[in-house]
Amino acid sequence: MNARRVRLAVLAPLAVSSLALGTVTFSASTAAAASPTCSVRSTDNPRNLLVSGRNFEPHRLVAVSSASGGVRAVRAGATGRFSLTITDASGTVRARQSGGRTVRCGTAGTGQDNARKQYREGFRQGFAAVRANCDATQPRQGFAAVDENFRKGFRDGARLASRQFCED
């Protein structure tokens, strides 16, 4: 055999195997990135929490539980997402799909306490701004999204200050 054929015989399988390994590695990293996650968010009703999840197995039941002992089930959608409102939850909220691992969503009360704190701060700033200047509006926050509870508090505080200090 000449040297050229030997090189081709040795290098061709190496090139093909490296391509195959590259796609296997790429597939494995994609699968690892899709682990289930969930979160807890407060609602307008202080007794309720909205639990949202994603990357769960589509069309399968997900059990959502809290430390208070309540368990609710919801079916993940075609994209692996779910959304569920739970009432009177306490402690850590978790989600688990049968055969899967338990995912920690958050802590009940923390989101509600933060919502109240944001509302109070917004109310205080709205009241102070309109008391100082009857034409005051909510300041822009730059690129950061303004918390909805802060916005509601600012509006309510500004409305109260307007009635007390700006009406003739």
UniProtKB/TrEMBL annotation:
Residues 1-22 form the signal peptide. The lineage of its organism: Bacteria, Bacillati, Actinomycetota, Actinomycetes, Kitasatosporales. This is Secreted protein. It comes from the Bacteria. Keywords: Signal.
